[in-house]
UniProtKB/TrEMBL annotation:
The organism of origin for this protein: Hymenobacter gummosus
Signal sequence residues: 1-27
SUPFAM superfamilies per UniProt: Cytochrome c (SSF46626), Multiheme cytochromes (SSF48695)
One Pfam family, short name: Cytochrom_C
Transmembrane segments: 190-213
Protein name: C-type cytochrome
Keywords per UniProt: Heme, Iron, Membrane, Metal-binding, Signal, Transmembrane, Transmembrane helix
InterPro entries: Cyt_c-like_dom, Cyt_c-like_dom_sf, Cyt_c7-like, Multihaem_cyt_sf
Ranges for domain Cytochrome c: 63-154
Domain of life: Bacteria
An example Gene Ontology molecular-function term: heme binding
Length: 443
């Protein structure tokens, strides 16, 4: 009876340890889920055209203003602010200086208006060192929503000063999300600490109880030989270390570890995940794409319409840096490249093998895939590195898990119907449309 009690206490101790270990793992998983939750990058910009479809009469509509905010950050923030001059003029009061139809024409094709001899257009062009504003393929409704957002920002005070309206707006929304995430993470950490403390207290308590029971049992006279043997037994560590099963277990584990590391090393041959070379010019994506929210397509102009996302030319840099930070040592490197008529020798980071076909426009324009899906948090990188593995297995997994947006596209109607009949309503993914066939990427 007494030996049974001793064994029970050891079993309880092991069960409690496993229970609290599992609870800690679940809490850690919850924390990971909380940290991964958030707004999908670019979601606001993607929703902007739909919300901006309202007419000029809806310029006071919060949805239209929100759409204008997203469009401004994606297209205008790199050269304009609401109340301060950046590369171009401050936009506050633009609807009072010029009628809306004029603003629409100017945004859509400013060079045409300058060439036509429009008095105000020529004046602006000359006032800002004949810096040509790019033409934007925005609809009348989208431009109207930008003007509506500018009007909504005119009456706001900016405690940051300077041209920071868009930055202040970003911080207002970003701080809320960051605060929520930090609060949730702090809560999970507190729970983990409490669980660890409780586990330690229980272990200490069980050890004390076990010792007390041993002392009590030693004072009893009715114990048989087997009970006394269990009560007084001690662990012979040397015999355990010399035993065949221990040596076999250690040898097996050693072989498995060596085999695993060897396979991992072989599988990693040719992979460049984490590759972060030094570039000839210290360009910070964190500053440009993160803090200033310059849209990726402003510099990588072909990312939505071509197989490759082109490396921007020095002329694109000069759209801003002909007037901003002109004395910076890094910017002077761009000037020298232009003067010598030589391209900047950027070091390529993401490089797929020649045997694999990849089309950026097919993924970004048709598939609606965000840059961060493959390139990671690019807007937080001072120096860009290869975030994803970019292996064949990595691509295939994405094709298996990513559903296709088939709404409003008659091409898919019959395919989706056949798929649903054969797969009981399972999601229609890229793989369902042949996205894992060899010839899709290798031909």
């Amino acid at each position: 009876m007494s030996s049974y009690r001793l064994r029970s206490f050891s079993h309880w101790l092991l069960a409690l340890f496993l229970t609290f270990t599992a609870a800690g793992q679940l809490a850690a998983q919850d924390e990971a889920k909380v940290s991964q939750a958030g707004v999908t990058p670019g979601a606001a910009a993607a929703a902007a055209p739909a919300a901006a479809a309202g007419s000029a009469a809806g310029a006071g509509d919060p949805a239209v203003i929100q759409a204008g905010d997203a469009l401004f950050k994606a297209n205008c923030a790199q050269c304009h602010a609401v109340k301060d001059v950046v590369v171009g003029p401050a936009l506050a009061g633009i609807d009072k200086r010029r009628p809306l139809p004029w603003i629409v024409k100017w945004v859509q094709n400013s060079s045409k208006m300058v060439a036509s001899g429009d008095e105000y257009a020529v004046k602006i062009f000359n006032q800002y060192q004949k810096q040509q504003m790019p033409s934007f393929a925005l609809s009348d409704a989208e431009i109207t929503s930008i003007v509506a957002w500018v009007k909504s920002e005119e009456g706001k005070t900016n405690p940051l000063g300077g041209g920071g309206e868009q930055v202040a707006g970003k911080e207002t929304g970003g701080q809320t999300a960051a605060t929520d995430e930090a609060g949730a993470g702090k809560y999970v950490n507190v729970v983990l600490i409490v669980l660890i403390v409780v586990l330690i207290v229980l272990v200490v308590t069980l050890v004390i109880i076990a010792n007390i029971m041993k002392d009590v049992l030693r004072g009893r006279k009715d114990l048989d030989g087997r009970d006394v043997e269990i009560l007084e037994q001690k662990t012979d560590w040397m015999s355990i270390l010399k035993s065949g099963w221990f040596k076999g277990t250690v040898g097996t584990l050693f072989v498995l570890v060596v085999l695993y590391e060897s396979i991992q090393g072989i599988m990693a041959v040719g992979l460049s995940q984490g590759y972060q070379p030094a570039q000839p010019i210290a360009f910070s994506h964190k500053l440009h794409a993160g803090e200033h929210q310059i849209n990726c397509a402003y510099c990588h102009t072909s990312v939505y319409k071509s197989k490759s996302a082109n490396i921007p030319s020095a002329n694109i840099c000069m759209n801003c840096h002909s007037q901003i930070k002109t004395t910076s040592p890094e910017i002077k490197k761009i000037y020298r490249a232009i003067q010598r008529q030589q391209p900047i020798q950027w070091v390529r980071i993401h490089n797929l093998p020649d045997l694999a076909y990849f089309n950026h426009s097919q993924h970004t324009q048709v598939g609606g895939i965000e840059c961060q899906t493959c390139h990671g948090p690019i807007e937080k990188m001072d120096v860009v590195y290869q975030y994803s593995a970019l292996t064949m297995g990595w691509c295939i997994n994405c094709h298996r898990e990513t559903p296709l947006n088939t709404k409003g596209n008659g091409y898919y109607d019959n395919l989706v119907k056949l798929h649903n009949e054969a797969n009981a309503g399972a999601p229609f993914t890229v793989s369902s449309n042949g996205g894992t066939e060899c010839s899709k990427c290798h031909y």
